[in-house]
């Protein structure tokens, strides 16, 4: 008898098959003496489309909402059905005794496998491969320590709830908005409140009124001092008051009233989780969150140089500590060799700050594996991202950065001036990386650092010069992907209710694995545009937030859901209670949309190109096939590539119709076109054929 191994992707299956000596390759799987290794292509099975429950849902009608199937059904995804059939047939083989789930070790990976098992009616035993890296050693150890499959039932239930909630809320609200306003509008439990965060920030910027303020700096000869009032504030918002301070100290002498010197120790930043790595890659290299995840996935799967990417932990468990020296030795090449050398000269010391089992969830922090490093195999983007991970990992194992901080207070005619300087005692982790500590912030009011020579309390200091500088207050900065990821992760701070804020502070908007995708959806649907590193809401996005029910645009709702999904995964919450709540929310949200004013939306992407079917001015939209011109009237639904000439709408090229059913896939562009459009075009094509005959 053999074990069937189900991986999530062909590349992972190939590596597992090699390690397990499954050398016979067939279409869709590898086979050996003990194992058969096959794969999904992402999801092979998904939730059934609305029309699978009732034929009336082929048409998008407001009166048919909400769609509330009593039981959510599954269907095979047509585009990958060939691979599903292979997997199903393998599951049905008489010589297969058990299934080993080897999909990605996380919530979505569990869902990929379980839905295939449900659809294929798998009844035999199954086990779970749960590994955090794709090295040969990790795979072998994982197969030596397979987990009982049912140990991950709660994780599956959480994933199932997430998918069903997205179906109920997302499809119903999206159809509701599309039908109500006859426009391409979408909404979702995470993307909508994320968009609302950006629009709130944009409104703050728009309503911001700058104020003039003045600062005062005095040159004492061998150092300078910045004016501060009794509360430590350095800004003066009245020019007369600033002039008064300046007049008091011009030509005067001051006296050093206090010198405070203290030694400070600063530990390295914590190791990376996915969100923190996406933030740093955006700040330093301008990588989008999606690009970071894509490059990281390659480092994990293809090169096997880093551990599991989609993690929300920045710690490692105690059982990983014995592997640290091996990881350091494997990466000790090139510029990293001299960095790891001091660590390998003596036993590696770790502290609770990095090693904490209680703060590791499904996966630990992103760190290098023990796979030998070959830098020449990596492209530029791979190198950049690996370098961030490598230096952060090494720096966590280095001693703290130690410096001596000195602050001098100089009084001039009862006015206080402060000077700050530091002397480095030990570079510590800063010898490894130029990255700033997370405690450091770009505080405009912070005292400027300077080199301070030896001074003594009581010394008199003549005022060499006094400079009064005029500045203006600045509006809050627009979100970049880095700061938006921070806002999504810490969505609890936007919640006013103290009890609820405390309850959701560990939740946030989305998960580390989904936040990049959410940002890309907002860009793709033209709710947000990139200007350099800044993300700027469009008028379409601003209008959408005015149309969706307010409850859906607030972080409380989705953050609460994510927290509950986490509890379901731990077995601490009821999936039935959760889904009952989702169904109630769906009914309420659709009801709100139905009651709204139908004339409230005005599209801003109208072109001068006329629709050849109905004569209306078409809209220019982004599409996975490129920029498209689409008719704004959903009952018409005509569309064409932006650069296609008008001419005869039935013009053919290479025996293919410009207008064909493939261009009418309502999901391909997250749009609102109903299936009735397919019938319309089919009738038109039949008429064309009839006339040509």
Overall 3D form: globular
- In whole angstroms, how far apart are the ends? 61 Å
Please report the total strand number as a whole number. 24
- Report the portion of residues in β strands: 15-25%
* Chain-averaged pLDDT: 88
Low-confidence stretches: 646-693
Number of helices: 20
Biggest β-sheet, characterized?
Answer: 7 strands, mixed
Radius of gyration: 31 Å
Helix content: 25-40%
Structural class: alpha+beta
Strand order of the largest sheet: 2-3-4-1-7-8-9
Describe it:
The chain is globular. The C terminus is likely disordered. The two termini are 61 Å apart. It is of the alpha+beta class and 693 residues long. Strand 21 and strand 22 form a beta hairpin. The strands form six sheets. Strands 2-3-4-1-7-8-9 form a seven-stranded mixed sheet. The longest helix has 29 residues.
Element layout with pairings:
Elements: E1 2-7, H1 10-19, E2 24-26, E3 29-31, E4 35-39, E5 45-47, H2 50-53, E6 74-76, H3 81-91, E7 96-102, H4 107-119, E8 126-128, H5 136-144, E9 147-148, H6 153-181, H7 191-207, E10 212-219, E11 224-228, H8 239-249, E12 253-266, H9 274-285, H10 289-301, H11 324-330, H12 336-344, H13 380-396, E13 401-412, E14 415-426, E15 460-462, E16 465-472, H14 481-489, H15 498-504, H16 515-524, E17 528-531, E18 534-537, H17 539-547, H18 555-569, H19 575-594, E19 606-610, E20 617-621, E21 628-630, E22 639-641, E23 652-653, E24 656-657, H20 676-692
Parallel strand pairs: 1-4, 1-7, 7-8
Antiparallel strand pairs: 2-3, 3-4, 5-6, 8-9, 10-11, 10-16, 11-14, 12-13, 12-15, 13-14, 17-18, 19-20, 20-21, 21-22, 23-24
Helix pairs in contact: 4-6, 6-18, 6-19, 9-10, 9-13, 9-14, 10-13, 10-16, 15-18
């Amino acid at each position: 008898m053999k074990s069937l191994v189900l991986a999530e992707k062909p590349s992972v299956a190939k590596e597992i098959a090699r390690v397990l000596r499954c050398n016979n390759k067939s279409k869709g799987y590898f086979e050996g003496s003990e194992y058969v290794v096959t794969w999904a292509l992402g999801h092979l099975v998904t939730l059934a489309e609305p029309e699978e429950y009732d034929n009336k849902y082929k048409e998008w009608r407001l009166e048919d909402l909400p769609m509330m199937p009593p039981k959510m059904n599954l269907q095979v995804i047509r585009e990958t059905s060939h691979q599903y059939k292979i997997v199903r047939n393998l599951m049905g083989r008489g010589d297969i005794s058990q299934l080993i789930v080897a999909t990605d070790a996380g919530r979505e990976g569990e869902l990929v496998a379980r839905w295939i098992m449900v659809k294929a009616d798998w009844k035999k035993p199954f086990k779970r491969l749960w590994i955090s890296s794709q090295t040969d050693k990790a795979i072998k150890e994982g197969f030596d320590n397979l987990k009982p499959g049912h140990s991950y039932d709660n994780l599956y239930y959480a994933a199932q709830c997430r998918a069903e909630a997205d179906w109920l809320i997302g499809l119903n609200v999206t159809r509701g908005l599309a039908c109500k306003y006859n426009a391409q509008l979408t909404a979702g439990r995470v993307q909508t409140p994320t968009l609302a965060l950006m629009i709130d920030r944009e409104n703050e910027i728009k309503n911001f009124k700058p104020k003039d303020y003045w600062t005062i700096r005095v040159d004492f000869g061998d150092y300078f001092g910045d004016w501060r009032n009794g509360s430590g504030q350095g800004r003066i918002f009245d020019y007369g008051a600033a002039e008064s301070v300046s007049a008091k100290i011009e030509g005067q002498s001051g006296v050093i009233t206090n010198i405070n010197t203290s030694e400070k120790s600063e530990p390295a930043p914590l190791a990376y989780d996915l969100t923190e790595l996406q933030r740093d890659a955006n700040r330093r290299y301008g990588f989008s969150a999606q690009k970071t995840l894509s490059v990281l996935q390659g480092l994990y799967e293809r090169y096997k140089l880093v551990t599991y990417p989609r993690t929300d932990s920045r710690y490692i468990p105690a059982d990983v500590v014995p592997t640290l020296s091996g990881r350091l030795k494997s990466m000790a090449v090139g510029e990293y060799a001299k960095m790891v050398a001091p660590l390998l000269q003596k036993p590696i010391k770790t502290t609770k700050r990095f090693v904490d089992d209680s703060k590791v969830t499904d996966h630990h922090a992103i760190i290098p594996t023990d796979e030998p490093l070959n830098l020449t195999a990596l492209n530029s983007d791979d190198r950049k991202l690996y370098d961030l991970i490598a230096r952060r990992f090494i720096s966590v194992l280095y001693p703290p950065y130690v410096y001596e901080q000195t602050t001098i207070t100089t009084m001039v005619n009862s006015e206080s001036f402060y000077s700050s300087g530091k002397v480095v005692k030990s570079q510590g982790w800063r010898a490894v990386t130029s990255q700033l500590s997370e405690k450091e912030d770009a505080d405009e009011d912070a005292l400027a650092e300077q080199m301070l020579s030896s001074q003594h309390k009581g010394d008199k200091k003549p005022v060499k010069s006094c400079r009064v500088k005029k500045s203006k207050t600045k509006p809050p900065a627009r979100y970049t992907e880095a700061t938006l990821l921070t806002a999504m992760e810490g969505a609890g701070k936007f919640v006013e209710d103290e009890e609820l804020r405390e309850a959701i502070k560990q939740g946030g908007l989305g998960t580390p694995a989904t936040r990049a995708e959410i940002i890309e959806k907002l860009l793709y649907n033209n709710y947000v545009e990139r200007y350099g590193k800044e993300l700027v809401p469009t008028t379409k996005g601003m209008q959408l937030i005015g149309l969706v029910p307010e409850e859906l645009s607030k972080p409380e709702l989705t953050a609460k859901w994510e927290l509950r999904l986490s509890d379901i995964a731990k077995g601490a919450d009821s999936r039935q209670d959760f889904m009952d709540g989702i169904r109630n929310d769906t009914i309420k949200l659709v009801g709100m949309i139905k009651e709204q004013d139908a004339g409230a939306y005005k599209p801003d992407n109208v072109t001068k190109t006329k629709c050849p079917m109905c004569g209306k001015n078409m809209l220019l939209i982004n599409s996975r096939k490129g920029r498209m011109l689409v008719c704004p009237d959903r009952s018409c639904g005509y569309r064409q590539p932006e650069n296609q000439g008008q001419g005869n709408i039935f013009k053919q090229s290479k025996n293919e119709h410009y207008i064909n059913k493939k261009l009418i896939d309502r999901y391909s562009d997250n749009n609102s076109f109903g299936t009735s459009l397919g019938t319309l075009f089919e009738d038109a094509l039949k008429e064309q054929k009839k006339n040509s005959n």
